[in-house]
Amino acid sequence: MNLSFENKVALVTGAASGMGLATAEAFAAAGAAVALVDLNEQAVRKVADRLVTEGHKAIPISCDVTDEAQVKRMVEQTVSAFGRLDAAFNNVGVQSLAVETAESTSEEFDRVNAINLKSVWLCMKYELLQMRNQESGAIVNNSSIGGLIGIPGRAIYHATKHGVIGLTKSAALEYAARGIRINAICPGAIDTPMVAAMIAKEPETMKDITKEQPIGRLGKPEEIAAAVLWLCSPGAGFVIGHALAVDGGYTAR
Ligand SMILES: NC(=O)c1ccc[n+]([C@@H]2O[C@H](COP(=O)([O-])OP(=O)(O)OC[C@H]3O[C@@H](n4cnc5c(N)ncnc54)[C@H](O)[C@@H]3O)[C@@H](O)[C@H]2O)c1
Known about the structure:
single chain, 7 strands, 45% helix, binds nicotinamide-adenine-dinucleotide
């Protein structure tokens, strides 16, 4: 199986941390030129500088992926630096504190919806304008097991992650015959700063997190990166509109 991304261009959002960071590093190691996108300008610049020092091709892009003008500029900067866009991992997302639905607020709904769902739609829109011209490309959107199942207290987050799969499937069908493949990935609990923050903020809800995983451990960001690279590779050439659970068995129960 060919997992080389030599002469390919990849864009990763949320590349300063967690799964985005691991995936940007994996794309770079596989030979891609990588645009590392994040709201945290300093952190993403540091990662891109390190990748360049290690001999890879990388640029940092400071961007709030909820802002349409900034997302448009993000794709323009990538194409201006590297000439094309072959693979995109729309990964940015945030958690929301567990709360009974009757107690949830419209401010929190709008905040999480903008970061987790609207951003994926915006990123796809501008990535697809470029990929449509090229008549080629692969997009992976980061959903969650929260896109496949419900968990009490998590209605807002899970609604946005179900929405990511809806966006993925519909857009995938639009572009299936035009050389562009769009899929979603559904991680289980992964050992990232997001989960560390949840454990710190919600020690009671999160206390059995490891035991709750059938595999008996949290996932590693690199295990998500490996699946994203495969989904973007020619080996996944017949995989379209799929929501791939990478969850240590969580949704197999
Ligand atoms: N960690 C998990 O267990 C888990 C499980 C399932 C799904 N997910 C999803 O995976 C994705 C990545 O999660 P993670 O755990 O690696 O997160 P993380 O918190 O470690 O990293 C998220 C990155 O996104 C950036 N970011 C946040 N808002 C942004 C914005 N508006 N514009 C640009 N960048 C922004 C942050 O600066 C950060 O670098 C999210 O969509 C999350 O919902 C996480």
